[in-house]
Amino acid sequence: MTHPSNADIQKLAQWDTPTICNALEVVCPDRRGYGYTVDPFVCFDPSLGSMVGRARTAKLRACQPQAGGYKGLQDRIGWYEYVAEADGPTIVVIEDIDPKPGVGAFWGEVHTHVHGGLGALGVITNGAFRDIPDNKPGFQLLGGSVCPSHAFVHLTAYNIPVIVNGMEVNPNDIIHADQHGAIVVPEDMVCELPGGVEFMIRKEAVILDAAKKPGFNIDVLKAAIKNQGEIH
Fold it and tell me: What is the pTM of this model?
């Protein structure tokens, strides 16, 4: 299997996530229909654009106290070390396993600054976030909801497979995400995707150029789509 460099991975950040999904359909047709989020998120800052990084995974709960009582931030040192040890940018992917996710927010002013300082670009979670005016600038949050309280929020496990909004993620998976959602990028497809992107852009340009010109009509459309194949 090809192991892409950090530079190869970060090259994908120049495109939005729908474009990456389109390109992945070209270079890896078997991946069509799965591997991405299917439920909507609350996006902290849509202007931040795309983020690409290695997944740092965990599960949490907030609706009931931590077994043995709350132990403070010291109890999370192992988690912080796990986030910090990555060789390159990371994206935290946390599954809220409460019966009703979002009872308490793990993400806010403290954790966005801490995780951002440890190399994380942002978080993807079905759980909640808060402290909107005070979160770390440039740190993206894609969350299931916004909540004012942290309740009894605590991590239950980390460095394990998780499922967030329909997307299955394993530790160290490559994640591409923006305001639209997120997708897992297969390791061996990273270096193939730029070619897939360029192919899709060339195909779409024929339709878009025609549609944007004066005099566009059904006959012009039929001529433009002839031999173009599938375009979305």
Answer: 0.93
